[in-house]
Amino acid sequence: MTGGHDWQHGAWPVATVRTAEEALMARLPESALMRRAASGLARRCAELLRARGGVYGGHVVLLVGAGNNGGDALYAGADLARRGAQVDALVIKGGHPGGLAAFRQAGGRVHAAGYGEDNYRVTGADLVVDGLVGIGGRGGLRIEAAALAQAAAFARAAGTVVVAVDVPSGVDADTGAVPGDAVVADVTVTFGCLKPGLLVGAGARHAGLVELVDIGLGAELPDPPLLSATTLDEVALRWPRPGPDDDKYTRGVVGIAAGSAVYPGSAVLAVGGALAGPAGYVRYAGAAADAVRAHHPEAVCTERVADAGRVQAWVVGSGLGTDDAARSVVHDLLASDVPVLLDADAITIVAEHPEWVRDRSAATLLTPHDREFARVAGEIDDDRVGAVRRAAEELDATILLKGYRTIVAAPSGATFAEPSVHVVTTGIPVLATAGSGDVLAGVAGSLLAGGLPAHLAGADAAFVHGLAGRYAAAEGPVSASTLVPALRRAVATVLTAG
What we know:
The protein has 498 residues and is α/β, with parallel strands linked by helices. It folds into two domains: 7-223, Rossmann fold (3-Layer(aba) Sandwich); 232-497, Ribokinase (UDP-N-acetylmuramoyl-L-alanine:D-glutamate ligase). It has helices at 14-25, 32-51, 68-82, 97-105, 115-122, 143-157, 201-207, 232-238, 264-275, 289-295, 324-334, 345-352, 355-358, 370-377, 384-395, 436-449, 454-473, 480-497, and strands at 10-11, 59-64, 86-91, 109-112, 127-131, 161-165, 187-191, 209-213, 227-229, 253-257, 281-285, 300-302, 313-316, 340-342, 364-366, 398-401, 406-409, 421-424. The protein has an eleven-stranded mixed beta sheet, with helices on both faces. Helix 3 runs parallel beside helix 4 and helix 12 (345-352) packs parallel to helix 14 (370-377).
């Protein structure tokens, strides 16, 4: 059962959720769990209606499937109807009997879903509630539900707010896969706990703002969750801070082996990221030493790794190249006894020599985007979390898969009782810009040197990197060079939250 972890930010697979629900329902009166869920759903819908002019007289359309998900929508619709909303339910295959009875008794109007009338009934509604398919849905929507999902999309484009019940219909709750038509929600109200498919993959984009309703399930959920959404409070608690007896060495020394004569900017950006982290000393080794000195005089620069001196962690790969000299650098650093972060060209190199990673005794953190991941671990399928977990096991290394939702997975036995997979939700699309990953690598390397385990260093670095992207975007177009000053603001946010 849940213990040290915050169940409100963990995500569990559907089979686990079902088992927990059955255990809880065995101690509750019939329909109590559904009514708890529906009450929370109705509260959120009422808040959205008030923002559009009020609940009384507001027009709500429910899209209702035959299962419990449709029952949640119907009970919530009954609550809204009792508050004076005009509520229509478009129902597929009869609907939930108890929910239908409560809905009709409250004055709700029931209609059999029909292709010709669906767009007409949905268009112009203030709010559409998607209760077509719940967390057990697999393999895409059937034709009747797909037609209603399309009607909701037309209404949303015209300004209607769409709320999904538990999970947007058509989204795989375990993986976030969207194999066909699916509802795109502005808000997803989910019950009991988060589901992985709301946090990762295409499912995260379809879910919109995810809000969790507590139905008393937390105590029934096993610990740890399948994955955990990294929070500001967690990052603030973990972020290394200097003590009165610390000096620049005890705070952590991070080495950066990045950049080249062709790509000196990679080195400048990686060092800038490292300087914004907690390490007290940054050593740079490589062909871009002059550029690094010019931009970051506080970094100590040499041209060869062998001359860099002792460090607590290395960052290697950004802009390094893949020639024989670069291969030699990657090989020698992986032969060291300190944590090593592999980015960009270093990932391409170890794709040909995975044993360099597997044979290490110290921690290794890889930070690929999708194409780099494919080089080292094969193409990613619809199950992004599963793919990253497999790669972590196969390489015996921590993998940080960059993206709109960054996923960090540690190999088994190396997680220190933490969840084995973390998802970071602060990222925004503008971070997909050249050099952004170099900054991220520098921050993560600084956290490694500061003493964090690889999976937490990766998750926390991605969190502040995402915050920095948001801060930079508020000032105008985002480039990697704008991230470094914004990163300092993001770290300040973390430090003041602790």
